[in-house]
Structure formats: structure tokens, C-alpha cells
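Per reviewer request, we include the raw input and output of the structure prediction for the construct analysed in the revised manuscript.
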Amino acid sequence: MEGLWRAATGQDPSPEDYTGIEFWSNPERAAWLTKQGEYIKTWRRRWFVLKQGKLFWFKDSHVTRSSTPRGVIPVGTCLTVKGAEDVLHKPCAFELSTTTHDTMYFIADTEKEKEEWINSIGRSLVQHSRSLADSEVVDYDNRR
């Protein structure tokens, strides 16, 4: 049933979303998180992988070259990543808001893991932010 829903709503990521990224090898961060669905607000445990400015999720932790992500978020589209215990009333919760999705919610297994995910995504956000592309940087000292 979930597969039909995903196909009908176009939720499966396009291969262009992750071409050239070896998500199966040496991720910056990888662990189980519980994620709230975007349309049907159920909670599902998924294996998350952060690699090269993309946050991928899979049904299981055995990720190989032939694995297909269940979803991909380009970290460059993220606006904020922060704790969300006060919003969800659940321990170890955090949220990620993007320019392309509404706010997405996650629950880590421990407080330490939650903080590590927030820090890792935050670092990746700074590294892959499109807010100041090289072409947009103005050198005011040499602009006369």
C-alpha cells in the first residue's frame, strides 16, 4: 500500500537527485531515525545517510550501490535545523525546515544522537548553502 501511495504522489526521488553521490560508501553521518511522513503523518523508522550535501533515507541499513533512496533532501535547501521536543512533546525530537518542503520532523534514539544530527546537518548546510554563491559575492573594496 505504501508503495502505491508513493508512486501516486510522486514521492520517490528522481535519480538526478543523487547521481554521482556514493551514498553507500563513507557517509558523513548514518544512523536510524524515526521520521514523520509528509502526507500520512505516521512515524516510521528509517536509515538516514548524510553525504555530500544530501540527506538520504532508506528502509533498511544495508545500503549498497544498487539501493534506491526512499527520499532525498538537498541540504542547501534547508532553512533551519533545531530541536523540536517542545513542538512534538517527544524526547530527542528535531525538525528540519526547507524551501521545498514544509517542516519535517525526526526523532533520534538518544539526546546525544539528536545533537550530533543537528550539528552534522548544520555543518553541511553551511558548506552547501546556495545563499552566497561565488557569483553573488560582492567585493566592496575593489568596486569603484
